[in-house]
Design a protein that fits this description.
With 422 residues, the protein is α/β, with parallel strands linked by helices. The protein has helices at 58-61, 95-109, 123-150, 154-169, 174-186, 192-212, 216-219, 236-248, 285-294, 307-316, 347-355, 392-409, and strands at 7-10, 19-23, 27-32, 35-40, 44-53, 64-72, 77-80, 83-87, 90-93, 116-121, 232-234, 253-256, 275-279, 299-302, 320-324, 333-337, 340-344, 359-367, 371-376. The protein contains twelve helices and 19 strands. The strands form five sheets. Strands 11-19-18-12-15-13-14 form a seven-stranded mixed sheet. The radius of gyration is 26 Å and the shape is elongated.
């Protein structure tokens, strides 16, 4: 091998040795230990791209990766992957070197006029798609029965079980690596043992939130006129704000985040404030029906095409609007979150510009013993442009800044499991 030849090496799995590839004049060469082999470019009949599941560090950037397989007339085939196996559950993402190598290899192969190029989905990804398509309908069909099975155990015991379950299995899921990368990027000064502690808290909170779906009636049993509250504590300033908003009768724009028990962010309805909430729908109609039933007296608008028109219709009828604003929004507004650029949903700021509605933030922080502290911020004044109109980009950044301050205060209660920065 000449030092000037493009080269690439990777190990496919625990049972395969590492292969070192280099591009020759008329053939693709590789070496395993002291043994060398090659395939001539003219013998390659097909180039097949396989889209499969990302692992290791690659899963932080994207959910899938693309492998390449060369198939020869003789039946031989060679596979190249951007993932390099290091040890059990540890993979190195070599996408940069892999892409550079493939960019040089493909033009050599295309010199063959009979070459076929195909794209396929790897069986592991097909299996995952099959599971994700089948689980929501099953949950929708039997979800009510499953939730009712936990009710005899009570909220506290069920929440503790949900916490234990997710703290046990969560670290084995791909989302755990995403959460770790997110936390390391947001808090580069924190040592690994602190990051591990926050991850345990993230899974603890997530498991409790899932378990609490069986007890939504108990959690939503809040009466602002009752001096003794069972589960939910709201400070007097927030209570006074919500009563004032109800008495004023003007539609309000509420925003919240996947922090603590985010389902409780809709408690404005307990004060007689009509509320419309935008939510991300499931792929199962039955599961959507179950979620709608569990969410109480709220107008629910699925986040899909036409959602904005529905929301505006409810606003014009006097309903307030609530949204979770802390996840990636494709095609959204560029904002800075924890010092890093990402996309945010500008809908709330757009509505504020068009209808001049006041903006308030709502959060529900988890307390020990399946109790919660709910808070409504003071009215947040939107940023305005030179013409006095609401600045959509600036206001979206302001809202993102409020969410960041919440997360910094309780980092173990935020949902770090999604790829916020892309």
């Amino acid at each position: 091998m000449l030092m000037t030849d493009p080269c690439y090496s990777f190990r496919g799995n625990a049972f395969a040795p590492e292969r070192a590839f280099w591009i020759g004049v008329d053939a693709l060469h590789w070496q395993v230990g002291s043994r060398e082999d090659r395939i001539l470019y003219r013998d390659v009949s097909e180039v097949r791209f396989y889209r499969g599941l990302a692992r290791g560090d690659a899963a932080v950037k994207a959910r899938t990766i693309m492998r390449l397989q060369l198939r020869c007339h003789s039946g031989r085939h060679v596979t190249l992957s951007p993932l390099h196996y290091i040890r059990f559950r540890h993979w190195e993402d070599r996408s940069a070197r892999y892409s550079a190598f493939i960019d040089v290899l493909l033009p050599r192969l295309r010199e063959n006029p009979d070459l076929k190029i195909a794209t396929e989905v790897h069986w592991t990804l097909r299996l995952r798609h099959a599971v994700t398509r089948s689980v929501p309908p099953l949950l929708g069909r039997f979800g009510e029965t499953l939730l009712n099975m936990f009710r005899p155990f009570g909220l506290d015991r069920t929440a503790r079980f949900g916490s234990w379950l997710m703290r046990t299995i969560g670290p084995w899921l791909p989302a755990h690596r995403v959460a770790r990368a997110n936390l390391k990027a947001a808090f580069p000064e924190k040592p690994d043992h602190e990051i591990d502690g926050l991850l345990q808290g993230v899974w603890d909170n997530f498991g409790r939130v899932m378990a609490e779906y069986a007890f939504t009636d108990e959690l939503y049993d809040y009466n602002p006129l009752d001096q003794v509250q069972k589960r939910i504590i709201i400070d007097q300033a927030s209570v006074q704000r919500l009563f004032a908003l109800r008495n004023k009768g003007q539609p309000v724009l509420f925003f919240s985040a996947h922090l603590g028990s985010w389902e409780l962010a809709s408690l404005a309805t307990a004060f007689g404030i009509p509320l419309t909430a935008v939510y991300r729908p499931f792929k199962s109609a039955a599961l959507n029906d179950l979620a709608t039933k569990r969410r109480g007296r709220i107008n629910l608008v699925p986040a899909r095409f036409g959602a904005l028109a529905q929301v505006e219709s409810f606003l014009q009828q006097g309903s307030s609007v609530g949204m979770l604003v802390d996840q990636h929004f494709s095609g959204g507004t560029d904002v800075v979150f924890f010092g890093r650029h990402c996309k945010a949903n500008p809908t709330l700021a757009t509505l504020a510009r068009k209808y001049q509605c006041p903006i308030y933030g709502v959060r529900a922080i988890r307390l020990p013993g399946s109790r919660f502290y709910c808070e409504v911020t003071q009215e947040l004044k939107p940023l305005r442009d030179s013409e006095g109109e609401v600045d959509v980009v600036g206001t979206t950044q302001m809202i993102t800044g409020v969410v960041e301050a919440w997360v910094r205060e309780h980092p173990d209660q935020w949902l770090w499991l999604h790829r916020r920065w892309r």
